[in-house]
Amino acid sequence: MKTDDFDYDLPEALIAQAPAEPRDSCRLLVLDREDGSVEHRTFTDIVDYLEPGDLLVANKTRVLPARLVGRKPTGAVSETLLLRRREDVDPLGGVWECLVNPGKRLKPGAVIEYRAGGLHAPEGAEVVLTGEVMDFVEGSKGGRLVRFSPAGGRTLDEAMHAVGHVPLPPYITSYEGDPEKYQTVYAMDEEHSAAAPTAGLHFTPALIDRLAAKGVEMCFVELEVGIDTFRLVEEDDPADHVMHTERYHVPADVVERVKAAKAAGHRVVAVGTTSVRSLESAFDPEAPADDPAVVARRFEDVPDSAAVCGRGDLVERRDATTDLFLMPGSTFHVVDAMVTNFHVPRSTLMMLVSAFATRDQIMDAYAEAVDEGYRMLSFGDAMLIR
């Protein structure tokens, strides 16, 4: 298996620069894993593919205003992308792991100044926030630790909101609409992610109500989307790629609802790859299972898994971290179906969906989507893999 195996021709004209309006009017490609067949529908038609008792599990994380544009001591422009707080370095939350561009030439101790309005701030505008560049992050590719200090009597949160912007992916170059369109309608109030869980962008309150009326249940995990959303696999052998760790939470009530759905013969449908990784990361192969017969019914779609043998189970996770890398050959213990977007070539996400279906099924479906003019990537159309 090579990274090139997950490459495909992506015409630039198909990269969506704005979300569909309304959100649920986008197209939906439905891929059946059993026979590889493909159907072309509209996202609102997802109701037709879900049954009463099925459980949707979505990532409720909210995106930070994580893109900060400031100036270095020389006056040159410097862009900072917030990735995650490092309470292990500063319990008060002032130190963040960041991507700083350009970063290699910034020596420890260099200070970046951020003003409200960014590069368009009037001359002499007040400095709202400063960032002192610290060390490189061990094991990362270009990550830096930055210590932030607010100015003008503001709190750190107030200062970051005054200077920060929602960090749209670099391939979205012309969007000037409402930044809330890059948040899901069910996002939590607290902001933790460097990018949106984009498969969830297609859901509207009305569609969620229609699903509930049919008897489809919905619950939420949280995974704080980090650096690997922005990074392609550069190694020839994807097994050599090192995943960045991300914080995630799978609450006890989600564990119980997943178990109940499985035991009743219903499906667990993950909304997005981040929900997939949360659920699969929370599967503990060493956990003592419940009644083996019940577990076997729960995980009957994965007959070779440890769960069917009476070993392993889904467990609660609080403030856990994961670097789970799902690629062809990986076993899925929890997820039965997946809602997802179309992903960047050569990415870990292409490998994940190819593991859930097959690489040939995914590449054929993507080729058909391109031929049919689907809108691709974060603001684009959706897939249901079932």
Relevant terms:
single chain, 386 residues, alpha/beta, QueA-like, Thrombin, subunit H, 2 domains, nine-stranded mixed β-sheet, six-stranded antiparallel β-sheet, 7 helices, 18% helix, globular
Secondary structure blueprint with pairings:
Blueprint: E1 27-31, E2 38-42, E3 55-59, E4 62-63, E5 67-71, E6 77-85, E7 95-101, E8 111-115, E9 127-136, E10 143-150, H1 156-163, E11 191-193, H2 205-214, E12 217-223, E13 246-250, H3 252-263, E14 268-271, H4 273-281, E15 283-288, H5 292-298, E16 311-314, E17 317-322, E18 337-341, H6 348-356, H7 359-371, E19 382-385
Parallel strand pairs: 1-19, 3-12, 3-14, 4-11, 14-18
Antiparallel strand pairs: 1-2, 5-6, 6-7, 7-10, 8-9, 9-10, 12-13, 13-17, 15-16, 18-19
Helix pairs in contact: 3-5, 6-7
Structure description:
- It catalyses: 7-aminomethyl-7-carbaguanosine(34) in tRNA + S-adenosyl-L-methionine = epoxyqueuosine(34) in tRNA + adenine + L-methionine + 2 H(+).
- One of its GO terms (molecular function) is S-adenosylmethionine:tRNA ribosyltransferase-isomerase activity.
- Monomer.
- There is one protein chain.
- With 386 residues, the protein is an alpha/beta fold.
- The chain has 2 domains: 3-63 and 179-385, QueA-like; 67-163, Beta Barrel (Thrombin, subunit H).
- The protein has 7 helices and 19 strands.
- The protein has helices at residues 156-163, 205-214, 252-263, 273-281, 292-298, 348-356, 359-371; strands spanning 27-31, 38-42, 55-59, 62-63, 67-71, 77-85, 95-101, 111-115, 127-136, 143-150, 191-193, 217-223, 246-250, 268-271, 283-288, 311-314, 317-322, 337-341, 382-385.
- The strands form 4 sheets. The chain has a 9-stranded mixed beta sheet with strand order 2-1-19-18-14-3-12-13-17, with helices on one face.
- The protein is globular.
- The model is unreliable at 296-310 (pLDDT under 50).
